[in-house]
Design goal:
This protein has 560 residues and is of the alpha/beta class. It folds into 3 domains: 141 residues, Beta-Lactamase (2-Layer Sandwich); 153 residues, 2-Layer Sandwich (Alpha-Beta Plaits), CATH 3.30.70; 245 residues, TIM Barrel (Alpha-Beta Barrel), CATH 3.20.20. The chain has 22 helices and 20 strands. The strands form 3 sheets. Strands 11-12-14-15-16-17-18-19 form an 8-stranded mixed barrel, surrounded by 4 helices. It has a 5-stranded antiparallel sheet with strand order 2-1-5-4-3. A 5-stranded mixed sheet has the order 7-8-6-9-10, sandwiched between helices. Strand 7 and strand 8 form a beta hairpin. Helix 2 crosses helix 11. The structure holds ligand C2E and calcium ion (2 copies). Ligand C2E binds next to strand 12, helix 13 and strand 16.
C-alpha cells in the first residue's frame, strides 16, 4: 500500500485528510508506525477511542509497555514476512490482537500499519512461522482462528490466508467479496437474538458447504461475511455469488433472507487485506435500497469521489473565512406585468484553483456533514446586508428568498438566528422569504408546522420550494400557513408536455389560488412555458427565459 501515490499532489494537510477518510471508513482500529524510529505517526478514530491518543509514542511503549524495543520485535523482523500476528492483545483486550503489514507513508517513508483484530477466542494466535505452517494444514483450524458462533474461520484467519494466497500467487487474479444480510437488525429485534444466531450459523454453513475446507471464507463481524476467490472473468465471481445467494434465500427459516455483496478486484497486492475488505464493503453499500441489485464491484470512482469529498471538506472552512462563497441572485418576475418582484439567493463557490463550483457539487455534501448550517447563515447574512444597502440607498427593497435546508429544522434555533439577523441589519422580516423544500413537509409535519408557525408570526414570508417534485400535495400543506408554492421545474416540464398534464398543472394552480397561495413557477425556459403559465393564472416566474442567477453587481443593472 503506497499512500504517497494516493495523495500525490496534495499538501500535508490535504494528504492527512484523505488518509483519514480512507482509514476511518472501516470498522477497525489502525495505527501507523514509522519503521525506522518506531514512532507512532498516525492513529484513526477507532484507535483513539480504544486506547487513547498515542501519536508521538514509540510503538513498544504502546504495544508492549516497554521502554526499549522488545526482543524479537515483530516490526524489526517484518523484513521477510509481510504479515505477523503478535501476542500483545492482553494489554488492551483479551480478545484482540494486532495485525501488522508493510506500507509506504505519504511522505515516502517506510511504515508499518497495525490493525487491531478482535478475536472471538481467548487463546493467543501464534506468530509468523507458526502461521505459515498452519496454512499448510488448513483442515485443522486453531480454536483462535474460528468464529465461535458459526464455527467457520474468523477474520484474523481470513486476513492471514487471503494475504498469503494473494501475495504468493502473482500470476493469478483474485477478488475479495464481502456480504451482509439486509436488515439483519430487524431479525434480531423481531424474532429475538437466538433466531438471529441461527441465521448466522446457517449462513456459515452455506459458506462451508460452498467452499469446503479451503479456508477462503470467514465471518468478519456481526452479520458480515467474506470470501476471496481466484477468477478469470467477472462472470465467474457473479456465478459463485448467485449460488451462495440462492442457498441463503432458500433457507429453513420462515422469512426472507436477502443479501448484498460487494466485490473488490485485487490490483495493488500491497493494499492491506482489511482495506480491501473495506472497499468491498463500500461497494456493497451502493446496492442497498435497490431491490434489483444484489452485488456491486468496487469502482475506482468511489475512491475518486472520496478524494473529491475530502478535498471539499478540507477546503470548506477556509473558504468561508476567506469569503469564497458568493451570493448569486436570480430574479423573479410577475407574469402579468413582467415587473421584477423578487430574487432567489443562490450560493456559488469561487474556488481559488478550481474556479466556480456549482451548488450541486457542495450543497448535498454540506447537508450531510452539517456545514450547511454555517454556509446558510452566511448566505442569509449576505442577503440581509444587501437588503440594508438597498434601504440605505433609498430604494424600495426587492424581497430576497433564501433557502432553508432540512438540517436547520432539526438542528438549529432557526427562529433566533433569523431574528438576530433582521435585528442586526434592521430590516423587516417580510423582505426575507424562506424557501422550504417540499420533501420536508413529509418528514415530520407537526414539528415543521410548529417552527413555521413561529416564523410566520414573526413576519417572514414562507415559500414551499420544489412543489410537485415528491408526493406531497396541497392537502399536506393546507394546514400550514405558507404564502407561496414554487412549482418545481421537472414537474412543470413533465406535465405540460401532455394535454392531461396541462390539466393537472392548471388544477394545481387553481387549487393553490383557492387556498390563497401565491404561485411561482421555476425553471421557466421557453416562450411556450411563459404563454402556458400566463393562461393558467400563475403569478410569478423564475427561470433562464428571463435571467440566469447572477452576481449582485450585475443584478443591480435591473431598474428598481
Ligand atoms: P433550487 O432551490 O431549486 O434553486 C433553483 C435552481 O434551478 C438553481 O440552481 C437555478 O440556477 C436553477 N434554475 C433556475 N432557472 C432555471 C432554468 O430555467 N432552467 C434550469 N435548468 N435551471 C434553472 P443552482 O443555483 O445550481 O442551485 C441548485 C440547488 O442548490 C438549489 O435548488 C438549492 O436547493 C441548492 N442551493 C443553492 N444555493 C443554496 C444555498 O445558499 N443554501 C442552500 N441550503 N441550498 C442552496
Ligand atoms: Ca430554492
Ligand atoms: Ca426549487
Amino acid at each position: 500500500m503506497n499512500f504517497g501515490e494516493i495523495t500525490e499532489g496534495l499538501d500535508v494537510e490535504g494528504a492527512k485528510h484523505v488518509i483519514d477518510s480512507i482509514l476511518n471508513a472501516g470498522f477497525s482500529a489502525t495505527i501507523v508506525i514509522n519503521r525506522s524510529s518506531f514512532e507512532i505517526i498516525y492513529e484513526n478514530k477507532k484507535a483513539r477511542e480504544l486506547i487513547g491518543s498515542k501519536i508521538g509514542c514509540a510503538c513498544h511503549e504502546v504495544f508492549c509497555t516497554k521502554e526499549v524495543p522488545c526482543q524479537g520485535c515483530p516490526i524489526v523482523s517484518l523484513e521477510n514476512t509481510s504479515i505477523l500476528i503478535s501476542k500483545y492483545e492482553e494489554l488492551f483486550d483479551e480478545k484482540a490482537t494486532w495485525v501488522f503489514s508493510n506500507i509506504q507513508w505519504f511522505d515516502g517513508k517506510d511504515a508499518i500499519m497495525a490493525t487491531l483484530v478482535k478475536l472471538e477466542d481467548k487463546q493467543n494466535i501464534s506468530i509468523s512461522n507458526d502461521v505459515i505452517e498452519l496454512s499448510d494444514d488448513k483442515r485443522n483450524l486453531r480454536k483462535s482462528e474460528v468464529d465461535n458462533l458459526t464455527n467457520i474461520p474468523n477474520y484474523a484467519k481470513f486476513y492471514i490466508d487471503a494475504e498469503s494466497t494473494i501475495r504468493s500467487n502473482l500470476d493469478k487474479q483474485y477478488a475479495i467479496i464481502v456480504f451482509d444480510i439486509d436488515r439483519f437488525k430487524n431479525i434480531n429485534d423481531l424474532y429475538g437474538m437466538s433466531k438471529g444466531d441461527e441465521v448466522l450459523k446457517f449462513v456459515g454453513n452455506v459458506l462451508r458447504d460452498t467452499f469446503g475446507c479451503s479456508g477462503n471464507y470467514a465471518r468478519m463481524h456481526s452479520d458480515m461475511f467474506s470470501f476471496y476467490m481466484e477468477y478469470d472473468r467477472k462472470i465467474d465471481i457473479i456465478r459463485v455469488i448467485e449460488k451462495i445467494r440462492k442457498k441463503i434465500s432458500s433457507n429453513g427459516v420462515d422469512f426472507d433472507l436477502n443479501t448484498s455483496f460487494g466485490i473488490y478486484l485485487v490490483q495493488d497486492r500491497g493494499v492491506p487485506i482489511n482495506l480491501m475488505c473495506d472497499r468491498a464493503m463500500v461497494a456493497s453499500k451502493t446496492t442497498k435500497g435497490d431491490v434489483m441489485r444484489f452485488c456491486a464491484f468496487y469502482d475506482e470512482q468511489y475512491r475518486e469521489d472520496m478524494l473529491r469529498i475530502s478535498e471539499i471538506e478540507h477546503d470548506m472552512h477556509k473558504a468561508l473565512e476567506e469569503r469564497q462563497f458568493q451570493m448569486y441572485l436570480q430574479p423573479k418576475f410577475r407574469l402579468d406585468t413582467e415587473a421584477l418582484c423578487g430574487a432567489e439567493v443562490l450560493a456559488r463557490w469561487l474556488h481559488p484553483s478550481k474556479g466556480i463550483i456549482p451548488p450541486v457539487d457542495f450543497i448535498p455534501l454540506f447537508e450531510k456533514n452539517g456545514f450547511i448550517l454555517k454556509l446558510d447563515e452566511y448566505m442569509w447574512e449576505e442577503a440581509c446586508k444587501t437588503l440594508r444597502s438597498w434601504i440605505d440607498e433609498g430604494r424600495e427593497p426587492i424581497p430576497l428568498s433564501v433557502n432553508i435546508s432540512r438540517y436547520h429544522i432539526n438542528h438549529n434555533n432557526l427562529e433566533n438566528v433569523l431574528m438576530g439577523l433582521v435585528k442586526k441589519y434592521d430590516i423587516k422580516p417580510e423582505y426575507l422569504h424562506l424557501e422550504i423544500t417540499e420533501s420536508l413537509f413529509l418528514d415530520n409535519p407537526e414539528e415543521l408546522n410548529r417552527v413555521l408557525e413561529r416564523l410566520k408570526k414573526q413576519g417572514f414570508f414562507l415559500e414551499v420550494d420544489d412543489f410537485g417534485s415528491g408526493y406531497s400535495s396541497l392537502n399536506l400543506i393546507r394546514n400550514i400557513s405558507v404564502d407561496t408554492i414554487k412549482i418545481d421545474k421537472d414537474f412543470l416540464d413533465s406535465e405540460i408536455a401532455s394535454e392531461k398534464g396541462q390539466i393537472v398543472v392548471n388544477h394545481t394552480i387553481d387549487m393553490a389560488k383557492d387556498l390563497r397561495l401565491q404561485v411561482i413557477a421555476e425553471g421557466v425556459e421557453t416562450k411556450a412555458h411563459v404563454d402556458f403559465l400566463k393562461k393558467s393564472r400563475c403569478d410569478i416566474a423564475q427561470g433562464y427565459y428571463f435571467a440566469k442567477p447572477m452576481p449582485l453587481d450585475e443584478f443591480m443593472k435591473f431598474d428598481f
